[in-house]
Design a protein that fits this description.
elongated; 70 residues; mainly alpha; 0% strand
Length: 70
Amino acid sequence: MDTLQLKNKIIKRIIEIDDVNLLKSLELIFNTSDENILKFLNFAHENLQNQEMNETEDFSGYIKEWVKSM
C-alpha cells in the first residue's frame, strides 16, 4: 500500500468517528511532533502485542468438571 492509499484509509476512518472525546484525543496526538507520535504508537503497539501474547484461555474449570463427570 503506498502513502496516498494509507492517508486515504486513515482519513476515511477518522471521518467515521462520532465520539467527540476520541476526536479530541486524536487532535492532541496530531498536535505533537512526528517523533512523539512515533514513540507513542510504538509503545501502544508493543503493549498490544504483549497483551495478545499473555492472553490464554483458562480451561481449568472445564477440565475439572469433565474429570468430575468421568
